[in-house]
Amino acid sequence: MPIPGGKPPYNKGIFYGWWMALSCAIMNFFIGGSFFYGFTVFFNPIRQTFGWTAAQTSIAFTFQRLESGIAGPIVGFLVDRVGPRKLMVAGWITVGVSFFWMSRINSLWGFYGSFFLIAVGFSFGSFVVMNAAIANWFTRKRSRALTIVYAGFGLSGLLVPLLSLAVTRLGWRETLTIVALVSWLIGLPLSLLMRHKPDPYGYFPDGETVAPAGLTPDLPKEELILNGPSLSADGLTAGEAVKTRAFWLLSTVFFFQQIGTTAIIIHIVPYLESIHIPSTLAAMAVTGLTLCSLVGRVFFGLLGDFRDKRVLITITVVLQVIGMFILSAIHAENTWLVGVFLFVYGLGYGGPIPLRPALQADYFGTKGFGTILGLMSLVTMVAGLVSPVVAGMIFDSTGSYKTAWDIFALITLPAVPLMLLAKPPKIVDTKPD
Q1: DSSP 307
Q2: CA 406, CA 408: separation in Å to the nearest integer?
Q3: Are 344 and 325 in contact (CB under 8 A)?
Q4: Nearest alpha carbon to residue 315 among 299, 330, 338
Q5: pTM
Q6: 31 contacts 95 by C-beta, under 8 angstroms
Q7: Which CATH code of 2.30.22.10, 1.10.10.60, 3.40.50.920, 1.20.1250.20 fits the domain covering 16-196+233-421?
Q8: What is the pLDDT of residues 4-55, one digit of tens each?
Q9: Is the CB of residue 157 less than 8 Å from the CB of residue 30?
Q10: How far is CA 409 from the centre of its chain?
């Protein structure tokens, strides 16, 4: 790993982009285990401590989605201009402080505020920033690199039973304090390893040793790096991308897809507990979901460099719809269906995670990658705002989540034809003559 001390010799050893992908995977392992998937084990203990309803508690996730939607374009704009490292360090500092705050809350608004700031920290420390950095460092192997990045999320479910055990043995406040400390120990040193683009460090994307197609072939490599057009600058600006049909079709697809996903991740443990599955086993179901999603990430992610990503994402959406209908059919007498749900929905849920940013880079290039991704997140934000609260309200009024899963499955269906209609736009050639 030749970079952080300075510019490395050209392409000796393992390409630095792979070290970045591995660092992102480790950070995502923690993010998923502690917050994205793992926070579901805190849901009932915190709610029961203060006597809040499921809908009241779910509003925190609405704030989180609101923050993600608003912060997405800002973070994307910043990462395209200042690079990932400074943003990620600031983000992980914020995450640790906010987990400490949550461990000391005594009011609903304190819960909302700390949850919101954790989300702000992770917005600056993960998703958009990581995707932008990896998209710049890889071209031909982009889908494979993103598969490594998001394998961390797929493995993160292994932390959820440990988190559940800690909450049971130590209490939710003490567990959140430990999470705060660990977030700094993991996030800060790994954030310092991140770099924006390969060109200043003597690399071409993918670790190529010769100029890729599109770069001037008759200059020495050192001159190409300093003077030649960068592959990282190819493609559309954010302003050009939002004028394309593809941008809005993809954003709409991901909007529909996000509706069921957000609600399931937040409510899966409370749902399984509501049909009399013990809390420990319910937490293990989160592990099962993430491991099945890991299979989907790896399988579809590796295929993404060799097959039509648009068709692959369509297949994953179909699997998600089927999975939600299976989830709706689970009751106390057929709990074996939990395993079927985890496999089917997990494959469908995990598959598009590395494919989405890879497809975006294929369609729009990497010139405005971060900003474009942030703008797409703004569009999909509404789904994450509404669905967790709707699921909580349905449970509060009926005592069951069944209706919520049926509704979300039907709402997700339009994503199938829309994904097939999302053809790539014509990329404007921005390289000088």
Answers
A1: S
A2: 6
A3: no
A4: 299
A5: 0.69
A6: no
A7: 1.20.1250.20
A8: 555 544 456 788 889 999 999 999 999 888 887 778 788 788 888 888 887 7
A9: no
A10: 21
